[in-house]
Structures are given as structure tokens and as C-alpha cells.
Amino acid sequence: MLIYNTAQLDNRLIRQDAEDAADAVMIAPETAKRIAAAHPYTLYSPNIFVRIGLMLATMLVVLLAAGLVFLVMIDGALRSIEIFFIVWGVLAYGTLEMWMSTHAHYRSGVDEGLAWMSVLMIGISLMSLMENQSPVGLYAILSIIGAWFALRTSDPGIAFCTWCCAIMLVVHFAIWYIPGARYLLPFLVMAVAGAGYFLFTRMQRQFRFRHYDLALSVLRLAALATFYLAGNYFIVHHAGQELLGMEGTPPFPWLFWTLSLLLPPAYIWLGLRKKDRVPLAMGLLLIAAAVFTVRAYHAVMSLETAMALGGIVLIAVSYIAHRYLKTPKRGFTTQAMNTRSFGAEQLEGLIIAETMQHAPQPAETTRFGGGSGGGGGAGGEF
Q1: Is residue 103 classed as helix, strand or coil in its secondary structure?
Q2: Which of 157, 193, 206, 341 is deepest in the core (most CB within 10 A)?
């Protein structure tokens, strides 16, 4: 499904795995060099600064081209400006497909600029075009479009926006079509977020989704954040007032307070137990959200003191976790490695293939021959 050359991306992952293994003194540097030479990577992937520059330049070119055509046909474009930009979004996507079929690029900025311009033009135009219609249909269309772009580009930002559209689809569908949504909505969103987290975790462990690793990590972070926000007392209270017109405290307040306070340490424990950075990082980030939630309803201290205390707790927990994992604990360490992305079995096979060399045979210096006479003895040749 990717628009990129998957064989080249496989070579890229193999080279990263070999470099990680060499840095960890698991293989010799010469072996890593032989693996890299046997798996060339020729896609254009510049550094982050060039990448950002090319992305901004590409987006500017698309905008200038659309603006020029808009000025030429301004009378007709003004009457249907949404359709005009939808057409330009489709043209930007077509340009992306054509560009990637003829150019060896990967995360160069050009492909990302075309993808984002296409998504933004189509998405904003649809939101304006369907402003007075049911939001369920709008978010359904946006989710489908975003899912297609995420599958084709594996862009983590597009994947995150698609997840947000999907959650909004669930929320509005429940409000419009499910009786008693005011009592079920938080649990429904939590169920969707939990199912999404386990689905994305399972996909990330499968070899066929190896090139979606970063996008799946972002989706897992988004799912964990959604699960927490759906059970956070502050979010449930204010969302109930704004979306459902509920007054007073939300039902089961003790449950939402428990989730608000216990989910961050539960995420941290899950990350340490499963040797997974995703729930560990999200748990550390949500500690500040838990402190803010308590401060919003129980002003036991000033806002400045609460923020300082939350920062101190976050730094302390991060420091303790970092010191604990500085020495590897059952395969879990603070050292960043890419080996997981491609798989240890593939790397092991490559290492064996590169290191198993035939031993050189000594040159023959003496050959013995038989007699050349018919029973008359040896011919004197050795």
C-alpha cells in the first residue's frame, strides 16, 4: 500500500539494525559495513532542516499555483470555492503519486508537502461544504480519506489527525443515534480507545507493518491519551456541559476521580512491565494532567505552586525511571535502538550470512604421482 519503494525501506531497516548491533558490540564493525554494502539505500532522505525547507517550499508552490489559477478564473471560482480547492487537493494527490513513481524520495519534504496540502485542501473544503449537515457524515468521510493517506504515506501526523476524526465520529454518532448517550459516551470512547490501542499494538508487532512503525507508535500514544481523557473527571464534567447540556456533577464521580489519579501510574507500571516506551512516556506526561485536574477542583495551593509541584514530580519520576533503566533490565534500557523495527531473526540471518566465510585453503606445494612405466617402477616424478 505504500507509495515508497519497500525494498529500499527494508534495506534501510537492515542497515539500522546492523549499526545498532555494531554499537552494542554484538557484531564487528567490518561485518556491519559488509551488511550495508550488500543492502544499498539510495532513497533521498535529507536532514530535518532540509526536509522542513523542502516541505514549506512545496506547500508554497502548490498555494501559488492554486492562487494563479484562482485569479484567472475568479468569477467561477468564487461561486464554488470549496469545489475549486477540492479539485486542487485531488491534483496535489495525483502529483504526489506521479512524483513518487519517478523520483527516489523518502521523507524528503516534497512528498510530505504534497500529502499535507492535499489533505488540508480536501479536509477544509469538505468542512466548509458540509457545515450545515450532520457532523457524522463529515467525520466519516474525513476518517476514510485520512486512513487512505495514512496507508499510502505512513505519515504519523496524518495518522494522528485520522484518529481524531474517528473519535469525533464516535462521539457525534453516539450523541445523534444512541439513546442515553450522556451516560454511555465516556465508556464508549474508552472502549474504542482501548480496542484501538490493542489493535495498534498487535499490528506493530507484525512484520508486514514494519514500515508503519512510527505511525503506529503515534496512534498508540493517541489511543492511551484518549482513554485517559475519556475517564478524566475535568474532561467528562465540562464535555457533559458543553455537548450534552448536563448540569451538576457527572454520574459516578468517584469512578472518574479514580481514573484521573490512577491511570498515569498504571501506564508507567505497564510500560516498565512490558518493556514498552509508549505507555511509559504517556504515563509520565499525564502526571501533569492529574495534578491539573486536582488543582481545578481543590485549590489547596496556588496555581504556580501546583505547576511547580507537578514539574518536580514529573522530573523526579523521569529521573528515577532513567536511572533504573540505565542498566538494562531484562532487555529494557534507556538506549535507543532500531533493531525492533525489522526483527532480530532477519538480522541474525544476515549476520550469519556475512560472517560465515570459507576458510582459505593452503596452496599445494607437493604432488605425488604414480609410476609411468608398465610395471617397470616409478617414473621419477613427484
Answers
A1: coil
A2: 193
Q: CA–CA separation, 303 vs 182, rounded Å?
A: 31
What the block records as the C-alpha cell of 351 is 549476520
Return the amino acid letter for 247.
E
3-class SS at 375? coil
What's the Cα-to-Cα distance from 315 to each of 287, 300, 335, rounded to whole Å?
10, 22, 19
Torsion of CA 152, 156, 158, 163, to 10 degrees: 110
Write out pLDDT tens, residues 33-66: 898 888 899 999 999 999 999 999 999 999 999 9
Nearest to 117 by CA among 178, 61, 72, 68: 61
User: Which parts of the chain have pLDDT scores under 70?
Assistant: 76-78, 182, 243-248, 299-301, 303, 306, 310, 325-382
* Cell numbers standing for residue 250: 457527572
Beta-sheet strands, E only, within 312-351: none
CA–CA dist 118, 60 (Å, integer):
13
Non-local CB neighbours of 265 within 8 Å, separated by 6+ positions: 283
Residue 257: Cβ-neighbour burial (10 angstroms; 0-12, 13-18, 19+) = middle
Residue located via cell numbers 533493531 = 339
Q: State the sign of the Cα–Cα–Cα–Cα dihedral 313, 318, 323, 327.
A: positive
Q: Which pLDDT value is given to residue 327?
A: 66
Distances in Å between the Cα of 282 and the Cα atoms of 196, 201, 225 are 16, 15, 7
Q: Give the model's pLDDT for residue 382.
A: 44
* DSSP-derived secondary structure letter, 24: T
- pTM confidence score: 0.82
Q: The C-alpha cell of 96 is what?
A: 504526489
C-alpha cell, 98: 506521479
Q: What pLDDT, on a 0 to 100 scale, did the predictor assign at position 341?
A: 45
Determine the number of helices (DSSP H) and then strands (DSSP E) in the chain. 16, 0
Entry field: residues in the chain = 382
Instruction: Assess contact for 275 and 331: CB atoms under 8 A.
Output: yes
Give the integer Cα–Cα distance in Å for 65 and 286: 43
Burial track 192-208 (b if 16+ CB lie within 10 A, e otherwise) = bbeebbeebbebbeeee
Is the Cβ–Cβ distance between 144 and 136 less than 8 Å? Answer: no
